[in-house]
Design brief:
Length: 200
């Protein structure tokens, strides 16, 4: 199940069960320049119910102005021998607010689980707000699991390097942003990725 969801246009399923050997690959996209609603919440729970089930979830959120986006993503490993990956990248400017709550739950019998979760964000203004809360709840002992989060600003040294080589400030900033979000852009259809690039 390979699917791209444009938040504000497409409904994200609230609950999905993956049986043995089933694979899910989702890309969630929120760009407030493409969405009519200025406040959106996405809540979904994905349960891996049989050996070999695989969930690959990525998300990109671009917030400007006064927009608000909240992600609440739960991945439940109820069976052993399953794999999940989550990679979310976001940017917030203006007075926007972005939130990410991610939970990986590993049941007591879910041995040989592999589960990884990352949320990386960039603040584009001093008045934007980002909240991130990755979580692990593990009840099995033979697992490979990790989670992490970073929040920061665009690197001024990188901007200085590009500007010293004749690249205008706005273009240097745009290139930094494109580099940051490129792992998610590569998952999008070409036309959608171009819309995002044009909106930066």
């Amino acid at each position: 199940m390979d699917k791209v969801f444009v938040i504000g246009r497409d409904a994200v399923p609230e609950r999905v069960h993956l049986q043995a050997g089933e694979k899910l690959r989702w890309t969630l996209l929120y760009d407030d320049s493409l969405c009519d609603s200025s406040a959106v919440a996405v809540r979904t729970e994905i349960e891996l119910c049989g050996p070999g089930a695989d969930a690959d979830i990525a998300g990109l959120y671009l917030c400007r102005g006064d927009s608000v986006i909240d992600f609440d993503i739960t991945v439940r490993h109820s069976s052993g021998g399953c794999t999940s990956r989550q990679l979310f990248k976001g940017m917030a400017g203006g007075n926007s607010k972005a939130g990410f709550d991610g939970l990986i739950y590993v049941a007591p019998d879910a041995q040989k689980t592999k589960a990884f979760q990352e949320n990386h964000t960039i603040l584009l203004s001093d008045t934007a707000h980002i909240r991130t809360q990755p979580q692990l709840e593990i009840y099995a002992d033979d697992v490979e699991c990790s989670h992490g989060a970073t929040t920061g600003y665009l690197n001024p040294d990188e901007q200085f390097y590009m500007r010293s080589r004749g690249i205008p400030e706005d273009e240097a900033r745009r290139l930094q942003i494109l580099s940051f979000i490129s792992p998610i852009l590569q998952r999008l259809p070409e036309e959608t990725a171009r819309e995002i690039e044009d909106s930066l």
